[in-house]
Amino acid sequence: MRNLILTSCVALLAIGCQRGSSDIYDPFNYIPESTDLVIKVNDAELLKSAISNNEILASIISPELISHIDHLNTTDQNRSGLIGIKSDSLMSSVVIPDAVNLNLPQNNSGGLAYKNVFKSSSERATFSMVIKPNIANQYAGQLFEIPDSIFAGLVLVDVYADGDSVRWELVGRKQQHRYEQLPSEPNTTELLTAFVPKNVESYLDFTSNSNTLERFTMDMSEQNAAPLKTFMNSITQWGLMKFDGQMIGLFKSNLTSNTLSQISNGSESVGTFRNQDIFVLDDFAKNAIFKTIAPENSWSVYCVFDNIIAVGESIDALEAIISTSQNDSSLNTKLIQNGINETLGSTADIFAFKQKNTALTFFKEIGQTSNTITREIVSQLTSDTSFYFIDGLLFETSTTSTEKGLTEQFSLKSDERLIGNPQLVFNHKTSTYDIVVQDENNRLKYISPKGTLKWQKTLDGEILGAIEQLDIYKNGRLQMAFTTSQSIYIIDINGNDVAPFPLQLTEPITQPLAVFDYDQKKEYRITVVQGKELFLIDVQSKRVKGFKYKSNNRLIRFKPVHHRIGGKDYIVFKTDEDRIKILNRIGEDRIVVKSKIQFSQAPITVFNNHFTGTTTSGELFQIDLNGSIDKTPLSLNSDHSFTALGKSLITMSENILKINEIKIELPFGNYSPPKVWRNHDNMFVGVTDLQANQIYLYDFKGNLIPDFPAYGSSIFDMRILKKGGFQLVTLGDDNSIIFYQYQ
């Protein structure tokens, strides 16, 4: 940083002597004992090029240091440049073309120590550094939160400018300390990052063996020693994270889930989140077990995932962990699997992740004005008998917001149980999709895509079916139309009623409304079904006089839908007595279907210009424009579901999803009817396992979209975005919604 460079000194900047020269010309002989850090530059021009082309490297190298690099003449293969920095006094910088002209005292012994360490540096490094152990120990403490000094003697750091990132390799001799009991050979294991939110402040992941955790053991009574040791010896891996200002612990155990749950004797459940129980830690668990591992923790609650126990300070913290594990919104998928393991390696005693604004001591000595690093940092510590090795990577994760993948944008709790399925509606003011959902008190909630409750409105009952959007003023400003059993509503996106609505009816409304726009001129017709009766109203709430439907005393079982084929309008719905009605605009029979059809609960749609549906016996029926019926066996069970879009047929029978001829076998469960979404470039099919609370999304080739299944407990709604990707909304628990985005 600039002020450190200014208040520190560049004690030495020299050019190595020509091959064969006397040692008196060796620049290492002129390194003062007080020097804290020495930089070795093999090729000044290559280093300056790396600084120019690597934004991250440029951000951590000060202009003052760059000016010194400018004076290095390292084009001669027999020469190399050194820059010595010390932080405790002020001297003028010394820049001369040849070490023979230096008027500095020689320090052969000190310089020899640096020289010997540099012998192990890589010629491929962008530059190398040798730092004193006090700086290296501070650095290790900053990254790995190690309170002890772990390095003895000078430490070598090789720095590489790799593409858009900066990587370094550090090696130093061990000093005896409590971390000495780290395994002499690193364990190869998966990190616990699948449980770590991608926006975590920091995360440490430790491999373990039967003795590793015992180094953390505080004084304990004989009464507590046995169960404590049993638990500690079962731990094969553990991690500590800081998230939302709280510390959370993760412990992987070779004990069974049932055994793990007994660590807190007589645990009291404090609730369930997404099918995961959360318990209170008792005093023994808090003090005898976890205080020995993380003495500064304030853990009070825990939950168990198979062989993983998570402990935290609050229920909210654990809910974040549960959500992360279920939705692949973790460091595991967004960072680690994104090539970082390939860069750092798959074995480590300690893995560390730090968000932005982390101070690193040796970068502070050479860096810009800010004491902090403005990029994310991952690092790992490994060891052998005599040395510690630290590999680090400085990178930018802003690209992760645009990389392909599913992210949970927010999860919003409601004080009341939510009913029905949440839905996305277009906001013409912001050109974004907002969320509407209703609670058990019949309040309609309107939520922004950032999770803000913008307004709520009390209705006179539960909404039937889906909310429709229309533009009654023909000015691009959209309204929402829906019905309860008592009233028809049209409201604007601010929650205001649009006069003359709501329209209250004396007889109950029995089916969801549908909105017809026959000629795409925004001359809307709204359906009203009351048992056996069907009539239409306009946006002035007036009954359409030209529409006269004769019910023949048959109950209308599904909401009417409108189709247009060959320039003609068809209004289609099912009635009791296994009849299908196909009407024209004025409510008269356009096609008379004489035969009865034992139709399933699946809707009737248009497929290849035929009115298409399924029967209770699993047959596909198709009605042509003359009223003739053709049936095709599909081998579906009686509880199947069916839909069609364009020239594609989609069925769901037991655990088998079929997209045309593509058969997809899902886990056994209770699946919602498939839904289909399409734009010009993409088509998707989605189902929800309402038993396991998993949502699945496939493309039309039958490929599961990456990051699915995701957590969701309801039929979900989705919108494909013009800029690519999509957004979707689903229920979490009874009182929460989850908003996802996929890019």
Question: Descriptors for this entry?
Answer:
single chain, 743 residues, alpha+beta, 16-stranded antiparallel β-sheet, four-stranded antiparallel β-sheet, 13 helices, elongated, disordered N terminus
Write the layout of secondary structure elements.
Blueprint: H1 2-7, E1 9-15, E2 37-41, H2 44-53, H3 55-60, H4 63-69, E3 81-86, H5 108-118, E4 127-131, H6 133-144, E5 155-162, E6 165-173, E7 202-207, H7 222-234, E8 235-243, E9 246-253, H8 257-260, E10 269-273, E11 276-280, H9 283-293, E12 301-305, E13 308-312, H10 315-327, H11 331-334, H12 340-344, E14 350-354, H13 361-366, E15 376-383, E16 387-395, E17 406-413, E18 418-427, E19 432-439, E20 443-447, E21 453-458, E22 468-470, E23 479-483, E24 487-492, E25 503-504, E26 515-516, E27 525-530, E28 533-537, E29 561-565, E30 568-575, E31 579-583, E32 589-591, E33 605-607, E34 610-614, E35 619-623, E36 629-633, E37 641-645, E38 648-653, E39 656-659, E40 662-665, E41 675-678, E42 683-689, E43 694-699, E44 710-711, E45 717-720, E46 726-731, E47 736-742
Antiparallel strand pairs: 1-3, 2-3, 2-4, 4-5, 5-6, 6-16, 7-8, 7-14, 8-9, 9-13, 10-11, 11-12, 12-13, 14-15, 15-16, 17-47, 18-19, 19-20, 20-21, 22-23, 23-24, 24-25, 26-27, 27-28, 29-30, 30-31, 31-32, 33-34, 34-35, 35-36, 37-38, 38-39, 39-40, 41-42, 42-43, 43-44, 45-46, 46-47
